[in-house]
# Entry
Amino acid sequence: MLLLRTDPLAPDRDIIRVAVDALRRDGIVAAPTETVYGLFTHAQSDEGCAKVFKAKGRPPDNPLIVHVDSVEMAEAVGYIPDELVDVLRRVWPGPITVVVRSRGVVSRCVTAGLDTVAVRAPAHPIPLALIRELEAPIAGPSANKAGRPSPTTAAHVVEDLDGEVDVIIDGGPTFLGVESTIIDVTKKPPVLLRPGPFTVEELEKYFGHIEVPPVARGLAEADVALAPGMKYRHYAPSTPLIIIHFDLKEAAKDLKTRGVRVAVLCAMGRCADADAVIQMGADLYEVAKNLYKSLRDLDRLGVDVGLVPAIEEMGLGLAVMNRLRKAAGHREARNIQDLLRALPNKQ
# Structure
C-alpha cells in the first residue's frame, strides 16, 4: 500500500499518475473529496468494483456513486433529462448526486444490478485530476469499513483499511465533512434520498419542489438501496450513542448518579458536565465538518454511552440528524424514561 501526500488544491501530477496507474490495473485508490474520503476504482471495472466491496465489507446490493468531471461525462453514463442539463451545469462541481437511468456502460457491480446510476461531479481538485488523467469516470463509496463513521482524514482511512488499498492519497482533512446530497430525478417531483451539504432549501431553487420521505430524515430504512446511505446502518461508533431531545445537563447528571460513564458530544453551545466531553463545533458548519471525527473520538474514551443533543432539521441540520440517527441506531430520548430505555444492557 502506498500512502502519498499532496497539496489538495494543487495535486502533484506524479502522485496522480501513480494512482491512475493503479486504477488502470483494476486497483482501488482512497482519496479526498470535498465531502469525505472516497474509495475509488475505474467505473467500468468489475474486478476493481469487487475489490471495493470486499475491502469495505459492503453489502452487494448497496450501489456506488459514479464520479465524473463534467455534465458531458455524466450524459455518457446515464440519461440526464433535457431540462436538467443546464441545472447540473450550475450546481456542479459540488456535493450533489443525481440518480438517473443508467446507460449500462459502467459495471453492474457499481450499480448493484439496478437500472439506475448515481452520478456526481466532485468539487475537489484531487478526484477531478484522477478522472481527467484516467479519461474515464471513477466509482466509489466512502473509504471506511461498512457501518463505521466515514473518514475525513487519511488517518481515518488507514485506521479502517490499512493494507487493503493500493494507494491512499493524503490531501489533508476534507472541506465539508458529510457525504453529498442525493436526489432521485427519475421521479417527479425529485425525491431526496440522502440529505447532505446541498440543502433542500438550496435544491428547490434549482429543481423545484423536492419530496422528503422519512428515509431521508433517518427515520426509516429503504427496502431497496437506490443510492448509498439508504438501507443499512451507517456511520456508527462502537460506543452506544443516544440523541437527546430534552435538557442535556439533566440527562448527563441522571446517568452519572446511576454510575454510568458518560461522554457528551457538545454542539452549538449545548453541553454538559460528564466523564468526557467532545466539542463538535459552535455552528452547524463546524458540527457537520467534525461529526465523523467526533464519533471516532468517542470510541477512544472508554465510556459506557455517548449523549448528543438533537439538531433542528433545517438546512444542513437535516443532514446532521440523518447521520446521527443512523449512528445512534435510532436511539433517541425525549425524557428520562426514554433515556433509561435506550441505555445498552438496561444499565
The mean pLDDT is 95. The chain has two domains: 2-217, 241-346. DSSP finds eleven helices and 16 strands in the chain. The first strand starts at residue 2 and ends at 5.
